[in-house]
């Protein structure tokens, strides 16, 4: 490769004090160097791998990795093992300097920085100047350095363990909070829903006017949405804590799918969508929990309706393949980009802007909370099955559609009234 004598030499400066960073950067840039800075040792190592500097300047006393430890790593990494590393330290003791050298530093510059002398010092190190440790003390300094590393390692592991325990404790608190509040909300929400239904039956009979009917209808829909949201949160928290309890029995898939189609048909009709299912009469029963499987599949059908424009079609097909039940929910909707396909099963993952969020869950692209697919995924996994999506990408004009595949094992031992919660 031809050499490029005009390109400036790169210097990496690792320093946690922003004033020193700015000062050194200014001085060295004025000398024509390309100066890169990092705020701590780890960031410095990463940057060094990327930019391969001609020289590294590092502060010694930093939070996280010390300058000595950074030097040790730089001398181990293939990208930087021949790069001069210069420690900047206020410690003037001879032993400190010797330890810096045995750790991997090639020299040191004392702090506070001498603005006039710095460019000359850097130039010398770039030209090959190296400090040496007296052979008589080398072994002793290495041992001291090794002891310091051992003590630091123990303290760091203890600190990490403590932080990890604290995170676990807080995570448990968060999960408990979600479980307790969603259960507390479920009871009144179910009660409200029941009473509104009663009210609607009464008002339907009394015939008290369209306006009043419309208000009751709106409250009913809103309450249903609130119930769905509380249910989704409860299900996700059960899935998260691996406590989803399935009552496993032979499930007639035709029954389950028919009930979903019946429930969704009015919405599909409103949107002029064709909702169809394949002939499932001859299918053998699947071992599983009918209620949870209904929930899993109806989330997919809800989404298919939501992300397919008016006039499109949504299909639910199923077939036995070897010892597996293969279910496909397909639509002629907007499709899903490949990069998003594995992420859509994660909690709260939604692709559309929250501005699209609508109060009606069947509106075209009316976004939800991003929990539907998480619940479906959790339920299928709890059945020992797999779920994935196949789509050419998202295109609101071309409408490539999406196909959600579910594979449910037919051979899972059916535990009567028992749980399959261990998945
Ligand atoms: P939400 O409650 O927002 O519908 P989901 O977990 O069910 O959340 O889905 C996550 C995201 O995956 C949705 O926001 C949507 O962008 C995308 N998605 C799900 N199903 C489909 C589909 N059939 N067609 C296109 N996009 C879909």
**What is the molecular shape?**
elongated
Largest sheet: 5 strands, parallel
Task: Let me know the CATH homologous superfamily of the largest domain.
Answer: Histidine kinase-like ATPase, C-terminal domain
Task: Kindly report the average pLDDT value.
Answer: 90
**Into which percent range does the helicity of residues fall?**
40-55%
Element order, helices and strands?
A: EHEHEHEHEHHHEHEEHEEHHEE
Quote the distance from N terminus to C terminus. Answer: 57 Å
Physical arrangement of strands within the biggest beta sheet:
2-1-3-4-5
Please specify the SSE layout and strand pairing.
Blueprint: E1 10-14, H1 18-30, E2 34-38, H2 41-51, E3 55-59, H3 67-76, E4 85-89, H4 94-103, E5 107-110, H5 118-126, H6 135-206, H7 210-240, E6 249-251, H8 253-270, E7 274-277, E8 286-288, H9 290-306, E9 313-321, E10 324-331, H10 338-341, H11 372-382, E11 386-390, E12 402-409
Parallel strand pairs: 1-2, 1-3, 3-4, 4-5, 7-9
Antiparallel strand pairs: 6-8, 9-10, 10-12, 11-12
Adenosine-5'-diphosphate (ADP) is lined by residues 299, 303-304, 307, 331, 333-334, 336, 344, 349-352, 367-374, 402.
How would you describe this protein?
By secondary structure, the protein is an alpha/beta fold. The chain has three domains: 10-133, Response regulator (Rossmann fold), CATH 3.40.50; 158-240, Helix Hairpins (Orthogonal Bundle); 249-421, Histidine kinase-like ATPase, C-terminal domain (Heat Shock Protein 90, 2-Layer Sandwich), CATH 3.30.565. It has eleven helices and twelve strands. The chain has helices at residues 18-30, 41-51, 67-76, 94-103, 118-126, 135-206, 210-240, 253-270, 290-306, 338-341, 372-382; strands at 10-14, 34-38, 55-59, 85-89, 107-110, 249-251, 274-277, 286-288, 313-321, 324-331, 386-390, 402-409. The strands form three sheets. Strands 2-1-3-4-5 form a five-stranded parallel beta sheet, sandwiched between helices. Strands 7-9-10-12-11 form a five-stranded mixed beta sheet. Helix 6 packs antiparallel against helix 7. The site of adenosine-5'-diphosphate has 22 residues, from helix 9 and helix 11.
């Amino acid at each position: 490769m031809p050499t490029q004598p005009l390109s400036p030499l790169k210097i990496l400066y690792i320093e946690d004090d922003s004033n020193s960073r700015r000062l050194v950067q200014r001085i060295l840039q004025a000398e024509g160097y390309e100066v890169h800075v990092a705020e701590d040792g780890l960031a410095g190592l990463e940057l060094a791998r990327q930019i391969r500097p001609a020289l590294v300047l590092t502060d010694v006393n930093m939070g996280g990795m010390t300058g000595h430890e950074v030097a040790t790593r730089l001398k181990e990494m293939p990208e930087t093992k021949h790069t001069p590393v210069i420690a900047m330290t206020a410690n003037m003791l001879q032993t400190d300097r010797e330890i810096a050298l045995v750790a991997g530093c090639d020299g040191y510059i004392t702090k506070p920085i001498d603005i006039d002398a710095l460019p000359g010092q850097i130039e010398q190190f770039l030209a090959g100047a190296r400090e040496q440790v007296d052979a008589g003390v080398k072994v002793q300094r290495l041992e001291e350095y090794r002891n310091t590393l051992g003590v630091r390692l123990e303290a760091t592991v203890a600190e990490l363990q403590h932080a990890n325990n604290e995170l676990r404790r807080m995570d448990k608190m968060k999960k408990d909070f979600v479980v307790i509040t969603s259960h507390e909300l479920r009871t009144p929400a179910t009660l409200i829903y029941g009473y509104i239904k009663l009210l609607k039956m009464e008002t339907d009979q009394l015939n008290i006017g369209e306006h009043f009917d419309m208000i009751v209808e709106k409250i009913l829909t809103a309450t249903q949405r609130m119930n769905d949201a509380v249910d989704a949160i409860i299900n996700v928290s059960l899935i998260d804590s691996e406590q989803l309890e399935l009552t496993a029995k032979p499930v007639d898939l035709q029954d389950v799918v028919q009930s979903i189609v019946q429930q969704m048909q009015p919405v599909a009709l409103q949107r002029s969508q064709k909702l169809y299912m394949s002939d499932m009469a001859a299918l053998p029963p699947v071992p599983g929990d009918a209620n949870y499987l209904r929930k899993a599949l109806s989330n997919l059908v809800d989404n298919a309706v939501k992300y397919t424009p008016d006039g499109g079609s949504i299909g639910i097909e199923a077939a036995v393949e070897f010892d597996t039940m293969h279910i496909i929910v397909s639509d002629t909707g907007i499709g899903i980009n490949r990069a998003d396909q594995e992420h859509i099963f994660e909690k709260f993952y939604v692709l559309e802007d929250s501005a699209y969020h609508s109060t009606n869950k069947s509106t075209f692209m009316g976004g939800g909370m991003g929990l539907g697919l998480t619940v479906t995924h959790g339920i299928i996994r709890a059945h020992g099955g797999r779920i994935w999506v196949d789509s050419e990408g998202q295109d609101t004009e071309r409408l490539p559609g999406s196909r959600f595949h579910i594979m449910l094992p037919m051979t899972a031992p059916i535990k009567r009234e028992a749980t399959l919660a261990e998945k």
